[in-house]
Design goal:
alpha+beta, Conserved hypothetical protein from pyrococcus furiosus pfu- 392566-001, ParB domain, Conserved hypothetical protein from pyrococcus furiosus pfu- 392566-001, domain 2, six-stranded antiparallel beta sheet, five-stranded mixed beta sheet, elongated
Length: 278
């Protein structure tokens, strides 16, 4: 039976204890990162940074924190502390992927063998418009300035093609994220650059629809900008894993957060900052 989501206590800062079974990701996770986090959670016994979610009916879509959610599911937690935000309060940017440490010809040969996609070289070489409604998945720009439009093969769903594509080049080389599509600048920054994968801009509503349908995007494409993000909550995991009710756990969370305010332990930084010890 689904737990009642109407809690009696509403903790500050949009924090809430929610049933973990109702929390769904919108992107894939790296099993190696999940394993490392499982070990760290067991060692530390606390959740430092709550995942960010948007509530959709009786489910919660994870915007940031899929690795934390997956790790806590593996550990058998019934509930998790999450920061619940509204779709209107967040902005969404797109990461592009810099593929490194694989020869361009080897990369093109590998991708050309995938039955889920088609590669159409652009002549003259220029970055093509990416139109998802016609089956476009992304654009591929090689280090030697070849430009390709990547589309889903006939009969293949674009999301299926996208996930297969990213899985393949992630396994073949090393992938970095980039916000720019300036290929010369990226080549200067990464001398071993093989190719740049340019993705279309997604909307928040599209991401929510993908998750609601039970589908997922590849990791490292969506970049959510979330003002007022809560960090360093350091919520103890022992009580969170107990069989206490959802109402009792939200009361516990309320007391935890209010206690931090009372102890003058809360700081709000409105301006962007650089952290040099991460």
């Amino acid at each position: 039976m689904t737990e009642n989501l109407d809690v009696e206590i509403t903790p500050p800062l949009n924090l809430r204890v929610v049933p973990l079974a109702l929390v769904v990701p919108h992107e894939t996770v790296d099993p190696r990162r999940v394993e490392r986090l499982v070990n760290r959670l067991n060692a530390d016994g606390k959740l430092a940074n709550p995942p960010i979610v948007i509530q959709m009916e009786d489910h919660y879509v994870v915007l940031d924190g899929a690795t934390r959610v997956t790790a806590m599911k593996q550990l058998g937690f019934p509930h998790i502390v999450a920061q619940v935000v509204s779709p209107e309060s967040v902005n969404l940017n797109t990461w592009h992927h810099v593929i490194r440490k694989v020869a361009v010809n080897d990369l093109l040969a590998l991708l050309g063998e995938l039955p889920e996609i088609t590669l159409t070289e652009q002549t003259p070489p220029r970055l093509p418009a990416i139109v998802p409604d016609r089956g476009d998945v992304c654009a591929l720009c090689t280090a030697n300035n070849q430009m390709f439009l990547v589309q889903a093969a006939p009969g293949v769903k674009p999301l299926t093609a996208l996930n297969r594509l990213t899985e393949t080049y992630i396994a073949a080389g090393r992938v970095m994220r980039a916000l720019t599509t300036n290929l010369p600048a990226l080549k200067n920054e990464h001398p071993d650059l093989s190719a740049l994968v340019v993705f279309p801009a997604y909307r928040v509503e599209q991401v929510l629809q993908i998750a609601r349908a039970g589908n997922i995007l590849p990791a490292g494409i969506t970049r959510f900008l979330i003002p007022g993000r809560v960090l360093r909550l350091n919520a103890g995991l022992e009580y969170l894993k107990s069989d206490a009710s959802l109402t009792d756990k939200n009361r516990w969370l309320y007391d935890l957060v209010v206690g931090k305010f009372s102890a003058n332990a809360v700081r709000y930084y409105q301006e962007p900052v650089y952290l040099l010890d991460e």
